[in-house]
């Protein structure tokens, strides 16, 4: 089955911190990335839903900036796809 993505996905694993709308925080990692978003490994947050807004910070870079992200796809037991907002 051919995918109809706007941008190609690149395998990329980076440590990140996520802040949820509830204020809860977790450290996890990305699985892949594109120009418009990321797929984030996160199996311990079953309450996330499509449309939720979170903040992400990439660990290990100098002067990281928190970026708002929106969940666009949830895959149970694996994680979720996000887009930058």
Structural write-up:
This protein has 85 residues and is an all-beta fold. The protein has a single domain (10-84), classed as Beta Barrel (Thrombin, subunit H), CATH 2.40.10. 0% of the residues lie in helices and 49% in strands. It is built from no helices and seven strands. Strands 2-3-4-7-6-5 form a six-stranded antiparallel barrel. The radius of gyration is 12 Å and the shape is globular.
- How is the main sheet built? 6 strands, antiparallel, barrel
Going across the major beta sheet, what is the strand order? Answer: 2-3-4-7-6-5
Write the element-wise H/E pattern from the N-terminal end onward. EEEEEEE
Mean pLDDT: 88
Radius of gyration: 12 Å
The tally of structural domains comes to 1
What is the β-strand count? 7
Rounded to the nearest angstrom, the distance between the terminal CA atoms is 29 Å
CATH topology: Thrombin, subunit H
Fourth-level CATH superfamily: predicted glycosyltransferase like domains
CATH architecture: Beta Barrel
Low-pLDDT parts are none
Keywords for this entry:
85 residues, mainly beta, Thrombin, subunit H, 6-stranded antiparallel barrel, 0% helix, 49% strand, globular
Can you give me a brief rundown of this structure?
It contains no helices and 7 strands. The chain is mainly beta. It is globular and about 30 Å long.
């Amino acid at each position: 089955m051919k995918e109809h993505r706007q941008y190609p996905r690149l395998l990329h694993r980076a440590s990140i911190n996520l802040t949820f709308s509830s204020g809860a925080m977790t450290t996890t990692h990305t699985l892949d990335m594109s120009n418009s978003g990321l797929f984030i490994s996160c199996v311990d947050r079953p309450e996330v839903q499509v449309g939720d807004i979170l903040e992400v910070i990439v660990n290990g870079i100098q002067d990281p900036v928190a970026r708002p992200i929106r969940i666009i796809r949830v895959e149970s037991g694996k994680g979720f796809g996000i887009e930058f907002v």
